[in-house]
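User: I'm putting together notes for a lab meeting next week and I want to include a structural view of one of the chains we've been expressing. I don't have a solved structure, so I'd like a prediction I can at least talk through. The sequence is below, exactly as it appears in our construct file.
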Amino acid sequence: MAFILFLLLSFLLHGTQAEIICEDLPIGLCTFSIASSGKRCVLENNVRDNGNMDYQCDTSEIIVKDMNEWIESDECLNACGLHRKTVGISSDSLLEPHFLARLCSDSCYKNCPDIVDLYHNLAIGEGVFLANLCEVSSKMPRRVMTQFLSSGAALGPVSATAYGPEAPAASI
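Assistant: Thanks for the context. Below is the predicted structure for the 172-residue chain, given as structure tokens.
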């Protein structure tokens, strides 16, 4: 009898568990989240006819292995030097010494697997390993760009907000 009750409660509880769907997330929780499907959420912006900017959370096609239903903590975002309202993600931020120092810090690199996985994959896309960039940046911060450029990575424009433009607080 106890086993039947356990099974019944298990089915009921399973049906009430919340599923993370990127399009249903508030704009302020979108970036650095992973849907129940295992796909990354991405904050995108669109210009309306009147010139104002609209923001929406969409599901990307990037699948994260062994992680789903994840909303990154504010502690990790702070430790890694990131912002919750970042629009888009770019490997350009790996050229920014201050960002790379935060990303490679123990408080980020050892405690924030979602963020490290994301930037690890961005680095691989540029032909370098994040662990190697972190090692070089801790010993010789100015050599990181040399290592990155020698990988054949294409440079894009880098700004003070190389980790991605931050959406205005008023529209979020």
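A couple of points you could mention at the meeting. The chain has eight helices and four strands. Residues 2-16 form the longest helix (15 residues).

User: Perfect, that's what I needed.
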